[in-house]
UniProtKB/TrEMBL annotation:
Organism from which the protein derives: Catenibacillus scindens
Domain DUF58: 182-292
Entries under PANTHER family matching the protein: DUF58 DOMAIN-CONTAINING PROTEIN, SLR1927 PROTEIN-RELATED
Protein name, entry field: Uncharacterized protein (DUF58 family)
Length: 377
C-alpha cells in the first residue's frame, strides 16, 4: 500500500514539475547571438558571441541552442558541430536560476561573402530529463566579409599608367552644391554670381566661389562569366579583388568610380550596379556590393549590358574591363566599346595554361593588361 502511495506521490510531483516547465521554461529567457564585428576581410579572424540569460528562479538543467551559418566561416572549435554545405552547431548549457552565460566562438573568414544568422532553435528538458520543450526564435546578425586587396606592388605600375591617362583627360567644373566661400567681384563676373545678402550687409560686391569637381569618371566593368574551365572560382574571386583594389585606389585620388557587373546579389538575385561616387562611404558601398556577389547564381553575358550602355550614349567614362571570359560575344562587345571610347583598359585574368585562348585585335591587345592567377586546388 505504501508503495502505491509513494508511486502516486512521485507521479504528482512529476506532473507538477512538468506543467511548471511547460509554462515557464522560456519565460525571461533571453538568448542572443551576434558576430563580433559587422565587417571583416577574407583571411581575418572574427567571432560569434552567444549571450544567454535565465532571468528567473527556475533552473534549466539542459538548454540546447542550435543554429546554422555558412561553412565558409571556419570555426576553431569543431565540437558539437557538423559541416556540409552549411555549418551546423548544437551547444548544451546548464543554468541555475538568475544566471548569465557568455560564450565566444572564434572563426576565420576563409571566403568573401555576406553571412547571416536569422534563426535559432531552443530546446529544454524538465528536471527529470523526460519532457523535451522546443521553440524557434528569430535572431538577426550579419557579417560582410570584403574581398582582400591584391598585391599592390603588382598593380602599382599599371595603376600609375591608368591614373596618368585619366589625368590627361580630366576636366574640372564648379559644383554648385559645394560652397567654398566668397571673393571680391571682378568685371568679368556674371551678376548672377553676386551674393546679394553679403552686399546688403557690407556694401561691397562679392561673388560666390564653389568647389571644383572632376568630370572624369571611372567605370569598372566586372565580368564574372565562366570561361568553360572546371573550378574556375579562383579566377573570378581574383577579378572581384581587382575590382575592389582599383576602386579604392581611384577613390583615394578623388576620382568617382562606378561598378557594373553581371555577378548577382545573393539576396535579390539580380546583377549588381553601383552608381558613380567618391569618398570612404562610397568605397564601403562598393565593398559591400562585391561581398554580396554569389558566384553560384547564373549570370548573363556582360556584353548585353555593354551594348545597352553604348546605345544610351552620354558622357563616356574611363572604362576598366576586368574579365577572364574570352568568347566571341565578349570580343565583339569589347571591340565596339574600344571604338566608341579611346579611354579604355582591359585586364585579362588567366591561369598559365589559358593564355593561348586569348585572341583579340591588335588594337585591343595594346590596351590589355595580363594578370596571372595562381591555381588553387
Amino acid at each position: 500500500m505504501n508503495i502505491i502511495f509513494a508511486a502516486f506521490g512521485l507521479f504528482i510531483l512529476y506532473m507538477i514539475q512538468k506543467k511548471l516547465y511547460q509554462r515557464n521554461w522560456n519565460k525571461n529567457l533571453n538568448v542572443t547571438m551576434a558576430y563580433s564585428k559587422e565587417t571583416a576581410v577574407e583571411g581575418e579572424e572574427a567571432a560569434l558571441v552567444e549571450v544567454l540569460v535565465n532571468d528567473k528562479k527556475l533552473p534549466l538543467p539542459a538548454l540546447t541552442v542550435k543554429f546554422q551559418t555558412s561553412s565558409r566561416l571556419s570555426f576553431l572549435n569543431s565540437e558539437n558541430s557538423s559541416v556540409t554545405d552549411l555549418y551546423y552547431r548544437s551547444d548544451i548549457f546548464s543554468f541555475n536560476g538568475r544566471e548569465k552565460i557568455t560564450r565566444t566562438l572564434p572563426f576565420t573568414c576563409t571566403r568573401r561573402g555576406y553571412y547571416t544568422i536569422t534563426q535559432m532553435a531552443l530546446s529544454c528538458t524538465d528536471l527529470l530529463y523526460i519532457e523535451k520543450l522546443t521553440e524557434i526564435r528569430d535572431n538577426f546578425t550579419q557579417l560582410y566579409v570584403y574581398p582582400r586587396y591584391v598585391d599592390i606592388r603588382r598593380l602599382l605600375i599599371p595603376f600609375n599608367q591608368l591614373y596618368g591617362a585619366i589625368l590627361s583627360k580630366r576636366r574640372y567644373f564648379e559644383d554648385p552644391f559645394e560652397f567654398r566661400g566668397m571673393r571680391e567681384y571682378q568685371p568679368f563676373d556674371s551678376m548672377r554670381r553676386v551674393n546679394w545678402k553679403a552686399f546688403a550687409r557690407t556694401g561691397e560686391l562679392k561673388v560666390n566661389v564653389y568647389e571644383d569637381t572632376s568630370s572624369q569618371e571611372v567605370c569598372i566593368y566586372l565580368n564574372l562569366e565562366n570561361n568553360g574551365y572546371v573550378n574556375h572560382y579562383d579566377i573570378m574571386e581574383e577579378n572581384i579583388r581587382l575590382g575592389a583594389t582599383l576602386s579604392d585606389m581611384f577613390i583615394s585620388k578623388g576620382i568617382p568610380v562606378s561598378l557594373k557587373t553581371n555577378g548577382c546579389d545573393c539576396t535579390s538575385k539580380l546583377p549588381i550596379q553601383v552608381d558613380a561616387g567618391t569618398g570612404a562611404g562610397h568605397q564601403t558601398r562598393l565593398l559591400q556590393s562585391l561581398a554580396r556577389i554569389d558566384l553560384e547564381l547564373p549570370v548573363r553575358h556582360l556584353s548585353e549590358q555593354i551594348q545597352k550602355d553604348l546605345e544610351l550614349g552620354g558622357q563616356i567614362p574611363y572604362i576598366i574591363y576586368i574579365t577572364n571570359y574570352c568568347h566571341d560575344d565578349m570580343i565583339k562587345a569589347v571591340n565596339a566599346m574600344a571604338r566608341a571610347n579611346d579611354s579604355f583598359q582591359m585586364i585579362y585574368t588567366y591561369h598559365r595554361d589559358m593564355q593561348d585562348s586569348f585572341q583579340v585585335s591588335p588594337e585591343i591587345l595594346n590596351k590589355t593588361m595580363f594578370w596571372e592567377v595562381e591555381h588553387i586546388d
